Backbone:
């Protein structure tokens, strides 16, 4: 058994000699493997602590993130059963442990306690357990319960831009897993649209009284993805009309720039709903422009340019779709 003083001595030698820094990781790994075993994956070793040992200071930002991750994990106790089941070899459990953990994890999926992105791999595991005779549920029951849970899980999930591929280790599971994967992708697209709609409505609520905030926010990284989506469709043409005609001249110009930039933020397809909304908006703005006092030259000119910008926007998106 190595004493704490022995550990301090070994680490102290490494700290004084930068060339020996690899010794630190090697020694820590040696202690971890000796004390906990290579197969134990339920033990957390903080990277911030390694920095503290190696460099003599605590990186509070990294430490805070690691602690918050642990606290979040603790608040969601349901994660632990599924995590343990899928990160250990099932043979490492006793019969009673496996029965308890597999039932607990199954219920987590059935009750929608996990994000939708866990369901394809989860289904793979439980189909495998069925094939091995480790659980009593039939294939039909497993699939039905997973789809029930998936629908519930959609309510607690957040959209992702990338869904990692899954491995099909058993060809007999391929059809079931592909069906689940397609459904997960479908739900992910729904979540993306819901997020875009929420963001669009929240931003346009800032117009016209908080125009500066609107134009600052929409170009920020947090909302940058919005510009690549057909977000105008989430605001009615009547609401857009009222907001645009109430803008000050400087904000009308900012809107023209925004409309002109949108097609170049990754927009690959046109959207019929958005096109319909903007077509109706253009008709309203043209009537507004025709009925305006012609002495208001600057304001009229900007309204005219907004109309042209929207027409160009629709044309550019259509061309990009045809390509």
Residues:
């Amino acid at each position: 058994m190595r004493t704490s003083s022995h550990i301090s001595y070994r680490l102290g030698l490494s700290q004084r000699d930068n060339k020996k820094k690899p010794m630190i990781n090697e020694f820590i790994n040696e202690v971890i493997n000796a004390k906990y075993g290579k197969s134990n994956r339920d033990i957390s070793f903080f990277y911030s602590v390694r920095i503290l040992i190696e460099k003599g200071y605590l990186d509070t930002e990294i430490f805070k993130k690691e602690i918050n991750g642990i606290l979040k994990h603790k608040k969601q106790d349901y994660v632990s059963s599924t995590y343990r089941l899928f990160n250990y070899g099932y043979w490492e459990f006793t019969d009673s442990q496996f029965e308890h953990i597999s039932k607990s994890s199954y219920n987590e999926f059935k009750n929608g306690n996990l994000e939708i992105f866990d369901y394809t791999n989860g289904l793979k595991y439980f189909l495998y357990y069925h094939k091995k005779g480790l659980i009593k549920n039939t294939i039909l029951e497993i699939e039905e319960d997973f789809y029930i849970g998936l629908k519930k899980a959609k309510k607690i999930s957040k959209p992702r831009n990338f869904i990692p591929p899954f491995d099909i280790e058993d060809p007999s599971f391929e059809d079931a897993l592909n069906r689940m994967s397609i459904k997960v992708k479908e739900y992910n697209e729904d979540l993306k649209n819901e997020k875009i709609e929420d963001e669009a409505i929240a931003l346009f609520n800032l117009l016209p009284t908080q125009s500066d905030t609107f134009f600052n926010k929409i170009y920020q990284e947090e909302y940058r993805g919005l510009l690549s989506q057909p977000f105008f469709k989430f605001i009615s043409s009547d609401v857009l009309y009222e907001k645009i005609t109430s803008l000050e001249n400087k904000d009308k110009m900012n809107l023209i720039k925004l409309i002109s930039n949108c097609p170049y933020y990754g927009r690959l397809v046109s959207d019929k709903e958005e096109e319909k909304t903007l077509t109706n908006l253009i008709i309203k703005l043209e009537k507004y422009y025709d009925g305006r006092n012609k002495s208001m030259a600057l304001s009229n000119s900007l309204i005219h340019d907004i109309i042209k910008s929207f027409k160009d926007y629709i044309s550019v998106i259509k061309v990009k779709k045809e390509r």
Observations:
- The chain is about 65% helix and 0% strand.
- Residues 125 and 137 are 13 Å apart (CA to CA).
- The longest helix spans residues 174-204.
- Confidence is low (pLDDT under 50) at residues 1-21, 38-43, 73-79.
